[in-house]
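Notes from hallway chat w/ T.B., transcribed later so I don't forget. T.B. wanted the structure written out for a chain they're using in a teaching module, and asked if we could keep both sequence and structure tokens in one place. Agreed to drop them here.
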Amino acid sequence: MDESSQDIGCPECMDLLADYVDGSLPKDKAELLEWHIEGCAPCVAFVNTYKGTVDAARRLREATMPPELRRKLIEFLKRSDLRSDLRRDPR
């Protein structure tokens, strides 16, 4: 990262990224984030990966789960939840 991008750090960028990608980040903060990203190769890579993930998730279609799979999943989750409760409080 060069000196010109030090007013906002990488951790702050990560905190602002979701609002930036969905367009709800205020203009002044978006400009500051863009300024940082221009001078920070690791953040460029992270932003590109993040945007790609968001875009891929938006393209996913909602699917109906078959009733038998839904029932088995619920049973599995209940058993898993019970096991984790027992590990936390083995009495």
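Follow-up for T.B.: Residues 3-88 form one domain. Might be a good example for the class.
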